[in-house]
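Known limitations

Structure tokens in this collection are predictions and should be treated as such. Users comparing against experimental data should check residue numbering before alignment. To illustrate the layout, the record for Putative component of anaerobic dehydrogenase is reproduced below. The input appears on top and the generated tokens appear beneath it.
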Amino acid sequence: MAATASDAEFLRARAAVYDLLAAAFDGDVETLTAAMADGSFRELASVLPVEPDVDPLVVEDPDPEALSIGYDNLFVVPGPHYVPPFASAHADEPSHEFESDSAFHEAGSAGELYGDPAARMARRYERLGFTPERGDGIPDHLAVQLSFLTSLAAARADADDLTTRDELRELEGETLAAMGWLDAFDESVADQDRAEGVFAALTRLTRTIVAWDAKRARSEAETDRDEDESRPTSSG
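Generated tokens:
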């Protein structure tokens, strides 16, 4: 059985939202400026239970060059304002087995590249046959995780049997639950992007969306468990 028309429409809308956010965090300035100019972020924030401040993301004529420089300073070039856009760098604990020759990382400490969060995300991608194309292919890069959520929502919308949809929903729930690192990431970006505030607002919006979606996913899973437990079992 395929998803109902309303379910499929909701899933495709979610896919479009995550695709926009993935592009923005991958440095796609053209997509970002277009969304800022046409009010997409304002419209998106208005449907959330808690509406974050998106004023910096609503600009009639955004400057692509300034946005590109701002993105690079925050998320690409290590420097005084650099905030790594991948989960491993914000892990509270170091990975069990991790070696790094980076001058910016001390062995045995958290905050690495390609740590345990990346390995876990890579295994999730394998389950869907997903190949990261954004975020320089770093498995736990925010742009890649958002792109994966895009693919999951689109796949759920197109799935034609209940088993496949349930498997996809479970994988989606795991992915959303693994994105709690956005709390620390959001706070760091807010500290470093105090001038223009575009990427601070974008990060806060993304954190809010993911948190809301994770709550929705947990609620769906709990409802399913309750329904399963209430079904009468066959006596043989």
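For this record: The radius of gyration is 19 Å. Residues 5-96+108-225 form a domain with the TorD-like fold (CATH 1.10.3480.10). Please report discrepancies through the issue tracker.
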